[in-house]
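As a next step, the fold was encoded as tokens, giving this record:
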Amino acid sequence: MGLEIEYIEGQTPLDEDEKEGLMIPTITTRSELDEFEQLNIEKAIRNQTIFIIT
């Protein structure tokens, strides 16, 4: 009989292959990765420069 661990959504741990390419070693779950990516998207949108060609 093995230990069954149930994760709530977002708590799913990243496997070693997924963590290997990350630049932030403290990210260990899917929700942490999602949050970090969302913050980067928001930052990019705020810093976006719009060029208008006339």
Remarks:
- Residues 10 and 30 are 5 Å apart (CA to CA).
- The two ends are 70 Å apart (CA to CA).
